[in-house]
Amino acid sequence: MLSVDGLRVRYGSLEVVKGISFSVREGEIVTIIGANGAGKSTTLRTLAGLLSPYQGTVMFRDRKIGGARPYNVAALGLRLVPEGRQLFPDHTVRENLELGAYLRLWRGERTGVAKDMEELFELFPQIRPRLDQRAGSLSGGEQQMVAIARALISQPRLLLMDEPSLGLAPMLIQSIFDALIKLRSRGLTILLVEQMAWLGLGVCDRGYILESGRFALEGSRDELLRHPRVLEAYLGKTPRS
Amino acid sequence: MRFLVQIVLSGIATGAIYGLVAVGYSVTYATMRVLNFGLGMWVMLGAMVGYTLHVTFGLNVLIAMLGMMTVLGGLGLLAERFTVLPFVRAGSDVWIMSTLAVGLLFINAAELLWGRNPLAIPPFLGKDPINFAGIGIYPQEILIVIVACAVMVALDVFYQYTLLGKAFRATASSTEVAGLMGINTRRIASLAYALAGCLAGFAGLLVAPVTLAEPQMGTILGLKAFAIAIIGGLEAGRGIFVCGLLYGVLEGLLSGYLYTGIRDIIGFTLMILVLFVRPNGLFGRRAEERA
């Protein structure tokens, strides 16, 4: 579904992503783990069209999208839930969801969108009572749920999630990740970027460890969870000898 | 007392025109952080094109209004594409000059096409003032206030209740995130520029029966509207319109009770004073309030 080959991204003369290659297949959850400044968000922002690659190719559903504009990338079915939620704070929650479904509503899918909204309320029951509230007035956890719902209502082919746990209390993090597991069981393809390794690796099929703009490790969830380097550097455990 | 009421009523009418044009500045600033510094000249062009359609061709005023807005809307799309977008994309501030240059081009073109002499557009609702309790008010002034308020309500309905309007607000909130929603933010920017031109042209045709249409009619008006947009707070559409109304009344009072010449200097004096106390304008919000 998504294949990235030799991706390099620069901010001016500073190279942040230094030639990474990876792929995401239909129906799987792939996680990129890395510390602050490793280049995780930059990678996702590039895939979503917010940044242009300096080098490398990005193919999504057999189309080259590297350097395409965000709205063109979104129209192909790739949807980013950005870091820090980034809802439209002065719009109501309902309007945020409508804007998530902008392209569908433009195509006249009003009934389908209303039906999907009901399904999303089952996934995130906290949203329904807040529908007519300003999105900016919600708590961090509620905002994250709306941000995910806003992306899901577009019926994405691939969901990119940038640090969904950021700034949330542990209980809320758990409910967000429970929702991800439910989405996974429905066959949604997700590329997740996460600093908290145990969370990110806990839900994925495969993962990559990004260090200073390069992949240091890659493998299946179990391989990574057992890898001494991951255990020591990312999970805070001493590997068994 | 009658004199005072007369001044206030006329001031509201003048203020409604200022308000409409000032909102035009806000429309482009809020969505694309660009100001059309030649917007006053779009006011003039609206009046001139309206004159041709309504007086020269004898079209019904509503059809002339629609025709004029189509012409100005089209010009807005072209002007944005060729005189704003290239500079915005290059990260250059040259659009400040290019928007003004387009306005100056309009003045020269108007002088060539319509001449330098003022052109009279007959008032849309008759010439004779309506007398009420000894106060005479021109029907055109009443029309200006009603229509300008109706346009503001329509604009509000557009922003609050239509999908495209919500996309405008989303783009104003964050171009980046709006793009992630699949909103073609490029198109929204073009439409915003065209909408601002239409608002200015609309104001021009509305006020022309009172002031006469001539190539320089929009220059001072545009500057005053700019000051009002700053006083109101560039992103606060409704607040700006209210400021326009208040400004018109204040201008009327000062020129009526002091002397006429003061009219053209109060705008920027007020602007500087307001910015001194509230840097984001009377109705504008600080960056931290917006977050």
Tags for this model:
heterodimer; A: 241 residues; alpha/beta; Rossmann fold; four-stranded antiparallel β-sheet; globular; B: 291 residues; mainly alpha; ABC transporter involved in vitamin B12 uptake, BtuC; two-stranded antiparallel sheet; 2 strands; 75% helix
Word description of this protein:
The complex is a heterodimer of chains A (241) and B (291). With 241 residues, chain A is of the alpha/beta class. Chain A has a domain at 2-86 and 156-233: P-loop containing nucleotide triphosphate hydrolases (Rossmann fold, 3-Layer(aba) Sandwich). Helix content of chain A is 37%, strand content 26%. In chain A, α3 (93-100) packs parallel to α6. The longest helix of chain A has 16 residues, at 170-185. Chain A is globular, with a radius of gyration of 18 Å. Chain B is an all-alpha fold. Chain B has a single domain (2-285), classed as ABC transporter involved in vitamin B12 uptake, BtuC (Orthogonal Bundle). Chain B is built from 12 helices and 2 strands; from the N terminus they run ααααββαααααααα. In chain B, strands 1-2 form a two-stranded antiparallel ribbon. In chain B, α1 (2-32) packs antiparallel against α8 (185-211), α3 packs across α8 and α5 (139-161) packs antiparallel against α8. Chain B starts with a helix and ends with a helix. The mean pLDDT of chain B is 89. Classes of the chains: A alpha/beta (241), B mainly alpha (291). Chains A and B meet through α2, α3 and α4 of A and α6 and α7 of B.
CATH topology descriptor of chain B: ABC transporter involved in vitamin B12 uptake, BtuC
What is the helical fraction of chain A, as a range of percent?
Answer: 25-40%
Tell me the Rg of chain B in angstroms. Answer: 19 Å
- Please report the number of helical segments of chain B: 12
Task: Tell me the series of helices and strands of chain B, N- to C-terminal.
Answer: HHHHEEHHHHHHHH
- The first-level CATH class of chain B is given as Mainly Alpha
- Estimated structural class of chain B: mainly alpha
What would you say the CATH architecture of the domain at 2-86 and 156-233 in chain A is? 3-Layer(aba) Sandwich
Largest sheet composition of chain A: 6 strands, mixed
